[in-house]
Amino acid sequence: MWSWDYAMDVSVILLRALPAALLAAACGFVIASTVGLLIAALIRSRFASVRRVASSVAHFIRSTPLLVQLFFLYYSLPMLVPVSMTAFWTGAIGLGLHYSTYMSEVYRSGIDALPKGQWEAATALNLSKRRTWFSIVLPQAIPPVLPIMGNYLIVIFKETPTLSAITYVELLLRAKNEASVTYRVFEPFTIVGIIFIVCSLMMSLLVARLEKRWGRRPSA
Amino acid sequence: MIQVIGQWLPYLMQGAWVTVKITLLSGVVAMLFAMLSGLGKLSSLTPVRWLASGYIELFRAASLLVLLFWVYFALPIAGLELSKTWSAVLAIGLNIGAYGGEIVRSAIQAIPKGQYEASIALNLSPLTRMRSVILPQAIVRMLPPMGNLWIEMLKATSLVYFITMADLTYEAMILRNNYYTDTPIIFGLLLLIYYVLASCIAAPVKWLERKLTAWR
Predict the structure, then answer these.
(1) Count of domains forming chain B
(2) In chain A, which residues have pLDDT < 70?
(3) Which ipTM value was assigned to this complex?
(4) What end-to-end distance do the CA atoms of chain B give, in Å?
(5) Out of A105, A180, B44, B144, which residue is the most buried by the measure of CB atoms under 10 Å away?
(6) Is the CB of residue B196 less than 8 Å from the CB of residue B154?
(7) pTM
(8) Among candidate residues B82, B101, B100, the one with its CA nearest the CA of residue B91
(9) What sequence ranges are listed for the domain ABC transmembrane type-1 (chain A) (predicted)?
């Protein structure tokens, strides 16, 4: 059932696909962090209509499966507007958009944990809106939530196999292709599973160190 | 247009039924494992604690889609052949159950110490203490995160498309083959149906939460 020779060969092939999965996760994470911050800011907007639209859109994205969103972006967006994206960018943007709605909640918990006096002091000092956000609020709100953001990087990484549905060759699709050539499925899929478990455990060790370093962690 | 959508609806409803079925079945498995592992992690017996932590850490670190592939394609080689439904239910249930275990554990740990002390003062047995004092209060705390977890589970069922189960996503992909030019409408409709299903989970959870916290 288990052949060590084959397992070794296939491990090398699969590990070569790991950078592709990590790259997609990293790009998705950067997009999620940026768009998430934007959503968090929009949800705190002065205008009730902006607040409502931002939170409804975020709620809709969070309530629907990533897989379907990826299909929508990859197969129907090019029919609606004249853009066509590679599988990689569709995947990164899909992951990014989906998790930006989770990330906005993380930012929100960090911003809400900030004492009201900070906002009032910024107003008293006549700081502009931009300076209030970039010099007062964010530098204090983000460090405590960095570990939670790190956890979402792990979550995004574990979601990368979904990108195989839009033909992006990451670990799972590589394993599938390998299995279809050799007709042996046990080793490739087992090894992919082990790679994911080892990588996420290693990443969560890093996050735990991050957490120790930044101390307090506001309840999510 | 309305007419065409009318033609699609029976197929989509058929798929939606499969999605709901998988969600409910994996929900039962997930809630069972969440309770067992959450309580197990707080057990006074070291082996039980290790087992529960091991389960939670392992299945939270695993990628659900890979787990599903492994259960459906690799496990039969090892001699255990499961139907598509049971592969999906087992993979999703075990994965989500690990997340639920953490919710159960943190909800029980959030109960104030005084409640334990009062139960001991009243000479309640450990079982009665857990069943009649701690759990009823912990369940109220679990409700909001569990509601979110059920929505995560609903979303996760779309992955059964990969093992060619005829769920909502799969039916929509078949429709797309037949009505290729309507792809955007089909996927738009698909997103909308998932949103409605998610709302069907969120609404009763909110209602229950209000009802259970009415005494406060």
Answers:
(1) 1
(2) 215-220
(3) 0.92
(4) 51
(5) A105
(6) no
(7) 0.92
(8) B82
(9) 18-207
